[in-house]
Amino acid sequence: MDRFLSSAVNRIDAKGRVSVPAHFRAVVQRRGYSELYALRGLDVPAMDVGGLDLLDRYEQRIALEDPFLQTANDMSFFCHGDGTFLKLDQDGRITMSDFIREHTGISSEVAFVGRGNFFQVWEPRRLAAYGAQARARLLQLRQGTKPGERLE
Length: 152
Description:
This protein has helices at residues 22-31, 52-63, 70-81, 98-104, 124-142, and strands at residues 7-11, 17-19, 36-40, 47-50, 83-86, 93-95, 109-114, 119-122. The chain has 152 residues and is of the alpha+beta class. The chain has one domain: Chemotaxis protein chec (3-Layer(aba) Sandwich), CATH 3.40.1550. The strands form 2 sheets. The protein has a 6-stranded antiparallel beta sheet. It has a two-stranded antiparallel ribbon with strand order 2-6. Helix 2 (52-63) runs antiparallel to helix 3. The N and C termini lie far apart (43 Å).
């Protein structure tokens, strides 16, 4: 499998490192990533993590914008200035920096969740709340109601 699937929660060690789940490390290895790129989620308290192809995807979108307009500038700030590189150590761990902790609220545990071509890191309780909201929104779609509308 060449996709980031499933989820796991791991504890942060005394040095601020956390083990990336083995099945995620296997995808990283198969894809040949030498380092990972982490980008703050725009609308969620999570970090999107992937290889340089994640960064490439955003840069391709920026290239479609007029470079003289604010949108291109904002998009560049978002993907170039609001992210960081992560290095996997020889034991498959990454460091939870202050940059990541401030955005996510992560303290002692990290929830990893697969998102197909990338994965996210979350504070576990925030991920649980987000997951419940996402399932509720999808259930409303399935039942043909609008978000926030009550079923009779």
